[in-house]
Design brief:
Length: about 260
């Protein structure tokens, strides 16, 4: 594994979830936006509100108190998909109940969501620092659920959002909560994450933390097809840039090598 790696997320705007407890949907939606950007070459804003409403209706937890399950959100993306934000806007000014009100979702949103499905997802069983970094290198983005405390998210707290992002100070902090981010890179000292607190968080919406955060990581998931889509996008570009027949032969060998690597 390379000692450092970063996925370029510059084409995907930072999501702002506001006071909505939909961090899992926000993180996973950012991943799916990147996935379809790789497939189409076009950025399409998607509706994390749509995903949150359906997830909240299926996972059986109290949305306002504990948010929702990333695994359920991933499964909905496989079964139902996700609509665009143009069809069902991400209005974070709504109350929690209004935000996840299924009756507000138009039929057109369900029809459109069928165009934005993912073929599958996987949850990592090995949550070691090295395992998650390896998944980032292979699958570009990894939804990483962690525990955090108030220093991450309360602007009224002095020195909030310091970098590197601090792990919780202990298990008894009353502000301790679960949170989902998108891990998109690493180097020997840090892991880099895209958050969903808007662009005023960290460095234009992104942050990083050290391996000291490892004990507070509780789940991680990824889209396996992301590796295939990324490789295809790269090969398509190379093929356009290398029209020579002899070069095409070399390219075919590269394609076969990449396919074998992905199968492994």
């Amino acid at each position: 594994m390379n000692p450092s790696y970063k996925t370029d997320l510059s084409m995907i705007p930072v999501i702002m979830q506001g006071s909505q407890p939909c961090c899992a949907e926000a993180a996973i939606t950012a991943m799916v936006e990147y996935y379809f950007y790789l497939k189409t070459g076009v950025y399409t804003p998607l509706s994390f509100r749509f995903l949150a409403a359906i997830t909240a209706s299926k996972d059986g937890v109290a949305y306002a108190q504990s948010g929702t399950s990333p695994m359920v959100a991933f499964s909905i993306l496989v079964e139902t998909g996700i609509c665009t934000a143009a069809t069902y806007p991400n209005d974070i000014s709504l109350t929690d109940a209004e935000f996840i009100d299924l009756s507000q979702i138009p039929e057109a949103a369900y029809a459109e969501a069928a165009n934005y499905k993912i073929p599958g997802f996987e949850m990592l069983t090995d949550l070691s620092w090295e395992s998650i970094n390896a998944a980032i290198a292979k699958y570009q983005l990894v939804m990483t659920s962690i525990y955090l405390d108030k220093d991450w998210y309360l602007s009224s707290v002095p020195n909030s959002n310091p970098l590197p992002l601090p792990p919780p100070t202990g298990n008894t902090d009353p502000s301790l909560s679960r949170h989902a981010t998108v891990s998109f890179g690493y180097d020997p000292n840090y892991r880099y994450v895209r958050n969903s607190f808007g662009t005023t968080f960290g460095q234009n919406g992104d942050g990083y933390y050290t391996p000291n955060y490892q004990p507070w990581i509780i789940a991680a998931g990824y889209i396996p097809d992301m590796a295939t889509v990324q490789a295809t996008a790269i090969l398509d570009k190379v093929e356009k840039d290398v029209p020579d027949p002899q070069a095409q032969t070399v390219l075919q060998e590269v394609v076969e090598t990449v396919e074998k690597a992905l199968e492994g």
